[in-house]
């Protein structure tokens, strides 16, 4: 998919949070290819610190992380920046419904490369944040 596929999204700031450094590096490289500025954090606490000092257009967070999981992060992020869209990722299928209700979208990690940009575009087009799942 060429960078021009989603021109309205270029130059946005994305905060990616995952305890797996390899996943973070892949997300960063992929999103930078499409013109994003990508901030990374290896924990929910570090992600909250970054969100408190940087303006972010979208947050991508893994569900399963030690110390603070994606659900706990989403609760704190909603208090810190209520309007920031949150996309939750997971390699597992057993993410609790209450966690999914806190975020704007869910993507299974095995669909990340094909679904991340369309989900970000959909959130951008909506203008308002509406919860939905994109795991098909």
What's the number of domains? 1
Run of helices and strands = EHEHEHEHEH
Number of helices: 5
The assigned structural class equals alpha/beta
Shape: globular
User: CATH top level?
Assistant: Alpha Beta
Helix content range of the residues, please?
25-40%
Neighbour order of strands in the largest sheet: 2-1-3-4-5
Number of strand segments? 5
Low-confidence stretches: 128-136
Biggest pleated sheet: 5 strands, parallel
What would CATH call the homologous superfamily?
Answer: Response regulator
Oligomer: single chain
Residue-averaged pLDDT: 86
Supply the CATH architecture. 3-Layer(aba) Sandwich
Radius of gyration: 13 Å
Which range does the strand content fall in?
15-25%
Please provide a brief summary of the model.
By secondary structure, the chain is of the alpha/beta class. The protein is built from 5 helices and 5 strands.
Can you walk me through this structure?
- The protein has 136 residues and is of the alpha/beta class.
- The protein has one domain: Rossmann fold, CATH 3.40.50.
- The protein contains five helices and five strands.
- It has helices at residues 21-33, 44-53, 70-80, 97-100, 112-126; strands at 13-17, 37-41, 58-62, 86-90, 105-108.
- The protein has a five-stranded parallel beta sheet, sandwiched between helices.
- Helix 4 links the parallel strand 4 (86-90) and strand 5 (105-108).
- Helix 2 packs parallel to helix 3 (70-80).
- The radius of gyration is 13 Å and the shape is globular.
- Residues 128-136 have low confidence and may be disordered.
């Amino acid at each position: 998919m060429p960078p021009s596929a989603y021109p309205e999204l270029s130059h946005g700031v994305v905060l990616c949070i995952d305890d797996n450094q390899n996943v973070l590096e892949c997300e960063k490289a992929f999103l930078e290819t499409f013109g994003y500025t990508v901030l990374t954090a290896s924990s929910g606490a570090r992600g909250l610190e970054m969100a408190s000092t940087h303006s972010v257009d979208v947050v991508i967070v893994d569900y399963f992380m030690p110390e603070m999981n994606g659900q706990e992060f989403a609760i704190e992020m909603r208090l810190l920046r209520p309007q920031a869209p949150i996309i939750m990722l997971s390699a597992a299928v057993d993410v609790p419904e209450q966690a999914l209700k806190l975020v704007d979208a869910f993507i299974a990690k095995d669909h990340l490369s094909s679904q991340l940009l369309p989900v970000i575009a959909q959130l951008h087009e909506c203008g308002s944040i509406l919860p939905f799942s994109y795991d098909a």
